[in-house]
Amino acid sequence: MYDVSTRKRALALVAQGRSLNSVSRETGISRSAIRSWQERLAPLPRIAPQDPGPPADDQAYAYLLGLYLGDGCISAHPRTGYYLRIACADAWPGLLQECRDAIAKVRPGIGVYDAQKQGCVAVTSYSQHWPTLFPQHGPGKKHNRRIVLAPWQQEITDAHPWQFIRGLIHSDGCRITNWTTKIVGGERKRYEYPRYFFTNVSADIRDLYTATLDRLGIEWTHCARNGNPFSISVARKSSVALMDAHVGPKH
What we know:
Distance between the termini: 48 Å
CATH superfamily of the largest domain: Homing endonucleases
CATH topology of the largest domain: Endonuclease I-creI
Oligomer: single chain
Structural class: alpha+beta
Radius of gyration: 22 Å
Number of domains: 3
Helix content: 40-55%
Strand content: 25-35%
């Protein structure tokens, strides 16, 4: 059905680090056909793509770094090198789009794909060089290993602290409305107030969050929720107002 040049072109695209899905979409050839050619034809030499260097957009990277530290992971792929996945809840379509946009700005021209999971979408992108952009990558869960920003990452988060905070809140945080009661004029009345929470098991990631809040002049406290000691609360009115101006609720 396909001539030799067509087969070689498809296999060359795969050899460059492209996924079967993306090659299939570009060429119109089924994944099963490409896979069978890989098995039947002599393997072509793999072309290692050149390292594209630092992030193309520092502001987008600061946001994506926050998402990665909260709900992201990097996994090895047998043919494409590595894939970055950010889990975005179905309840927040705006977050899903912001995640896609951030990846596209950090690495212009790279493919970004959605993989529907139960209750969430894994925004996925394949590259040889994701571990270079996210040196926090390593075996096991993040809270079981040391998480420290590289000097160049710290420079970016120092330059764009609110984007870093937004990424962390959009992954492992939330804005809620708390309530309490108080006596006013002899009557007990309900009083509501907004509050931000950030919850992460990793002490290192919590420290990155609170250190950035400190630089921004945001007052925060440790808060145990349901016996969980891993939450950071921002509840003071002036600090919540700053968070609302720069972060806001998920959407």
